[in-house]
Amino acid sequence: MAEELNPFKIAQEQLDQAAQIMKLDRQAHAILREPKRQLTVTLPVKMRDGTTKTFTGFRVQYNDARGPAKGGIRFHPAETIDTVKALAAWMTWKCSLANIPFGGGKGGVICDPKKFNDVEMENLSRAYMRGIASIVGTNQDVPAPDVYTTPQIMAWMMDEYSRIVGHNDFGMITGKPVEIWGSEGRKDSTAMGGMFVMREAAKALKIDLKKAKIAVQGFGNAGMYAYTLSKSMFGSKVVAISDSAGGVYDPDGLDMKKLEEAKAKTGSVQGYQSKNAKKVSNEQLLELPVDILIPAAIENQVKKDNADRVKAKLLLELANGPVTPDATNILFEKGVVDLPDFLVNSGGVIGSYFEWTQNVSGYYWDTPRFDAELDKIITQSFRDTMATQKGYADKKQKISPRMAAYVIAVDRVARAMKARGWY
Ligand code: GLU
Q1: Which of 24, 130, 335, 381 has the most crowded CB, counting CB atoms within 10 A?
Q2: Ligand 1, residues 61, 79, 190, 346: which to mutate, most atoms within 8 A of Cβ?
Q3: Which CATH number goes with the domain that contains 100?
Q4: Residue 75: which residues within 8 A CB-CB, separation 6 or more?
Q5: How many domains does one find in the chain?
């Protein structure tokens, strides 16, 4: 991995930049530059042929001054301790910006989940939970789904943990199936939150969402719902979408049924057929002539060498870390409004927060309440971010939306650490 793109170095650089802007206390800065705790586990897993394969897993608790560590688990072949550390740092800022009572954490297992059958997946999920059980829990660290992990996987993990502690503990993990007290609204809450941010940003930038053209990179949970919700909530035209194999572009807009057919028949949205549809690569998708660009896949997509070619006016980071620091600066100079991941995709963890409070209290809400509360929290985060950016602009200091969001988030965590006497 190129030095410039080591995600943990990026997370530290971003923090350093924010620390300078906000004149953060040095001692607080030193605590916040490193994770509080990192655990590496070796996982022997029984495979379908009777052999045992060994996998490596991680769980990082970055900071818990404001509440239990919170953050997803990724099953990915390219997982490293540094990606997990970076993502755990970003979770800390995400929960703080949303002003929900959690710190930040993240987990991962180095594996290729596409090669597993269900039994192997269950065995790996249970082995991972056994490996980390001693440091997680409702009041300590609450995992959730992330790249290539699902509600079913959360259910196995919750079951394994409950066996270990000897009683049911529904609040120890979120993103569960509704049968075991997950929330109906959680499955699309990352994208739904992104849509509320898009609505507010479009108002501020005077973009008419009914006429807007949107490109979405990614067809996982975040990308797929971003596609369906931008159509159903605002009537916007999604003209491009992609998956890991590549994407499709149709200036007239894409049709969900045809996308699903293409995915089922050819394994990729690239197989989409219509009069004006063209195949595009994941790189080309980022440079299409659209009003709004939504990277909703993985990190480091908009970089130094392609940022200048982004044509969208508004970029919504629905993935974690899709825009590198160099690219953030280029976009900022160019006048592209690039709203940071830990604001735009915070709907996922805000949804997890609702699931967790319901598990802890034992009182369950309906979906309209879930969506309305999500709107309230994420809209407030957007407004706080814009107000902080404006506050600095009034003092003649130009800072990006990302730095404005950082200043708010880091300040809250630093204040909590100060109140607790950590420095
Ligand atoms: N994996 C999601 C994220 O990166 C959700 C985390 C959670 O719900 O804890 O925000």
Answers
A1: 381
A2: 190
A3: 3.40.50.10860
A4: 108, 109, 111, 113, 124, 147, 148, 149, 153
A5: 2
